[in-house]
Amino acid sequence: MRIPGDVAGDVAWMLKCQLAVTAHDADGRLRDATSVQSHGALDDVFGGYEGELGCVVDGTAGGAEEVRVSLWAPNARRVTLLLHRGPRGGDGDDGYRVDMREGERDGVWRASVGAEWVGGYYRYEIETYHPWGGGAPDGGLGSIVTSVVTDPYSRSLSADGERTHVCDVNAPELKPPGWDSLRKPKPPGAGDAFEPTDMAIYELHVRDFSALDESTPAHLRGKYAAFTCEGTTPVRHLKNLAKAGLTHVHLLPSYDFGSVPERVENQATVDHAWLASLPSNSDEQQAAIGSIANDDAFNWGYDPVHYGVPEGSYATDPDGGTRIVEYRAMVAGLAKMGLRTVCDVVYNHTLSAGPHDGRSVLDKCVPGYYHRRNLDGFYENSTCCNNTASENSMMERLIVDDLVHWAVDYKIDGFRFDLMGHIMLRTILRARDALAALTVERDGVDGRSIYLYGEGWDYAEVERNRVGKNASQLNLAGTGVGSFNDRLREGIMGGSPFGDPRVQGVLTGLYFAPNGFIDQGTADNQRNRVMEDCEKVIAAMAGNLKEYRFVNRKGFSTPGKDAAWVGSNVGYAAEPRETVNYVSAHDNETLFDGIMLRSAPDVPLAVRCRLNRVAVAVVAFSQGVPFFHAGDEILRSKSLDRDSYNSGDWFNRLDYTGETHNFGVGLPGRDKNGDRYGYIGHLLGDLSLRPGRDEISRSDAHMRECLAIRRSSPLFRLRTAADVDRRVTFYNVGPEQEPGLIAMMVRDAPEGHPEQLCDRFQKVLVCVNVTGHAVTVKDEQLGLDIYGCSLEAHPLQGMVCPDEYLASATCVGGAPTVPPHSVVVFVERR
Question: For the chain: N or C, fewer Cβ within 10 A?
């Protein structure tokens, strides 16, 4: 549909009105009518704006001279700047009003005020047509409304995001000592830039890190500043992981989110001593936590309000610039530990929308534009709430601007995109290029080392490119952007997040130790599934490359994209850097809890703990980018909670001392887990299944050993698909394979050859045995490939984490023998 030529000049005015399209018959009678979604027209007329947005404090070296504010709101009828001296109402400040002026052709409203307002606060009062103006989104007619809103380009806020703070983020008082000269840890590989395959990522919640740690000063527990407290147990723990080979800490959402009261005096608490006195499978703990869940200090934070501002509940003072200083100090503290920082970003939705909710920001500024609407005009909510529309130009610009802001102003080294598949691929690539263009000389950061990865799930309204080409797993191949490899998680653990959590996988007992809880088919069926799932693991260990070829269980050479079955798309990456291998994350059960749910009743606790270590080793020794959930290394439990986003500090406890363990601290929240109470109650009631300090310490040491082994050789960190194709071979394959055994060889070029990568090892052989018995790799090709070689255990294996099992690991006559439930690394030294 096109606007008639005689009214085309009035489009800018029309976009400020309620619009409808009517259909009439030949006699002029009304036959149909519909409202109009105007985002396309807004883009055509105003979407190319590239100028200043937000608050800019302008001045000279002598100080600020002017404060300018700019708001893109092309369908607004009137915008007024509301200025405040203080962070909230009731402080004797009635505010000052300044009329803003709209640019003639850009849809931007502007105002300037004096430098005396630096340190003050502001909001906008906007008069506009809103489709929800007459009621809720599922009913009522739109109308002209007046909304009060903060700045979508806010860089600082008052507590709970009530007002935007006027500040210059580059002002000296907002920088911790040494900020401008901060340099990040060097990569383990060659060169100054961080290659993603040199990374080892650790996913951590800011509050979990220290909230219940007694060695951290009480007023800093759960705060950004806890990362700067040298000598505390959490800081020592991260330092030890970094010394071993951990490179990046991925922080769960740390932008301003709306689910936690930011002022300590408004945060509800519950008596943990009383909770600890209750039975291990009681439902009273979850009832108590649930009663305060929306008012306590804990939430994962996947409910964004202001994308460009650090979350205030993690600051010692949520009003004004303290959160900026303390966030930067946290990043510097991590760098001092030897770690770089990754931010979790949630651009796929906002917490709120509509003209009246206090946490609605984007939708008050340009109603109906920043969010994706279906054909009936309702806002899509397949991501949980208020899906955003990155296919619209200014939403895409907001995302790119925000990422550059975090990279430059907070020296962030990577970004993990929540539900990245709901974002257009064009947007992700534009962000990738903008970040890669950053330089130390001009911007203070090296954009070449910034890594982008995320959840490339392809579902709902964006599935199969229905909205536009989206950033899904299959579409990301060749972009250099990573995505989570759920194929490894499902192959190792079994089942899926949406099915019965007792479905077993390669690691958790399928075929070798059936749990009997559910019908998983005959022994022959399970044997075949084990070999099928092993193909998913093989693909993952080879970087999950779609074109890497191996011999499948039927004896045919097959590419990764056809692993397990033809057309499976198990392998989807074009390069190893595009695969993020993991077996657990903040979503769903922890690694330890997943093993507990799936293990047969007669599997001893010691074996279950060993299975946890096997899973960690598989992730560490696979090609691609290894990703670990905080606590994988200490057998972390959330008392079998499958979705702990709002389960408080009690269920999310992370104890780096090893003195406590969170298995059996009550039934998890009824809302998310009640349908499982019938079979998890008896598990949580059996405290013989709770690991002690020795098991926790052994697993902790094992994680550090795996990281050190990975760091010891670039053969574990191949950078290109061509290298993987040339150097990686799998044995014990085909129809005669021994199920449950995976053997991967990585070869280097001869000494002095131009393609030599490693100066320590000529060959690396990784053997994974998930069975309950020792297995010898009987493969004629392996015998030929290592004929005349002297293979021995990796020199670090068993040194950091002494393990009596490893004494039986041998390689005699070209046939390695691998102990039960273990991963062994053999090497040929140069």
Answer: N
CA 514-517-521 angle, to 5 degrees, is: 55
- Asked whether 246 and 200 are in contact (CB, 8 A), the reply is yes
Name the CA dihedral angle for 486, 482, 43, 108, rounded to a multiple of 10 degrees: 120
E strand or H helix at 615? helix 605-621
The token pair at 561 is 């994209």
Residues 6+ apart with CB under 8 A from 172: none
Q: Name every residue whose Cβ is closer than 8 Å to that of residue 532 and which is 6 or more positions away in sequence.
A: 553, 564, 565
pLDDT at 248: 98
Our answer to whether residue 418 is catalytic in this structure is yes
Mean pLDDT for the stretch of residues 139-157:
90
Picking from 483, 454, 467, 170, the residue whose alpha carbon sits closest to that of residue 302 is 454
Report which listed range, 138-152, 588-602, 775-789, is most confident: 588-602
Q: Give the per-residue pLDDT at 104.
A: 86
The C-alpha atoms of residue 55 and residue 391 are separated, in whole angstroms, by 25
* Contact in structure between 171 and 217 (CB atoms under 8 Å): no
SS3 labels along 219-282: HHCCCHHHHHCCCCHHHHHHHHHHHHCCCEEEECCCEEECCCCCCHHHCCCCCHHHHHCCCCCC
Tokens of 445: 């950061």
Nearest in space to 108 (alpha carbons), one of 148, 152, 165, 64? 152
- Catalytic hit among 418, 632, 643, 748: 418
- Dump strand ranges (E) for 328-462: 340-345, 414-417, 451-454
DSSP run (H or E) holding 815? strand 815-818
Token pair belonging to 581: 């291998």
Q: What number of other Cβ atoms are within 10 A of residue 96's Cβ?
A: 14
- Measured in residues, the chain has a length of 830
**Helices within 338-455 (DSSP H only):** 362-365, 393-409, 425-436, 440-443
Distance CA 371, CA 373 (A): 6
What is the tally of helices (H) and strands (E) in the chain?
21, 31
pLDDT tens by residue, 157-188: 999 999 999 999 999 999 999 999 999 999 88
Task: Tell me the pLDDT of the chain averaged across its residues.
Answer: 95
Cα dihedral value 656, 660, 666, 669, nearest 10:
0
Catalytically annotated residue among 396, 455, 532, 593: 455
In degrees, rounded to 5, the angle at the alpha carbon of residue 154 between the alpha carbons of residues 152 and 157 is 125
Beginning with the edge strand found earlier in the chain, give each strand of the sheet holding 101-102 in spatial order: 54-60, 63-72, 108-114, 101-102
CA-only gyration radius of the chain, Å:
28
Q: Residue 600 contacts by C-beta under 8 Å, 6 or more apart in sequence?
A: 509, 513, 514, 515, 516
CB atoms within 10 A of CB 417: 27
**Alpha-carbon gap, residue 485 to 543, rounded angstroms:** 10
Strands 741-747 vs 728-731: parallel, antiparallel or unpaired? antiparallel
What is the per-residue pLDDT across 47-94, written as a single tens digit (0 to 9) for each?
999 999 999 998 755 566 899 999 999 999 999 999 999 999 865 566
Q: How do strand 101-102 and strand 96-99 relate by DSSP bridges?
A: unpaired
DSSP 810-825: EEETTEEEE-TTEEEE
Asked whether residue 801 carries a pLDDT value surpassing 90, the answer given is no
| Cα 642–chain centre separation | 17
Q: How does DSSP assign 477-497, residue by residue?
A: TTSS-EEEEHHHHHHHH-S-T
Q: DSSP code of 741? A: E
**Could you give the C-alpha distances from 749 to 186, 549, 757, in angstroms and in order?**
26, 20, 7
Give the integer Cα–Cα distance in Å for 794 and 823. 11
The phi and psi torsions of 139 (rounded to 5 degrees) equal -175, 165
Rounded CA-CA distance 227/815 in Å is 48
**DSSP strands (E only) in 36-75:** 54-60, 63-72
Question: Which of 505, 488, 491 has the alpha carbon at shortest distance from 541?
Answer: 488
Is the pTM higher than 0.70? The answer reads yes
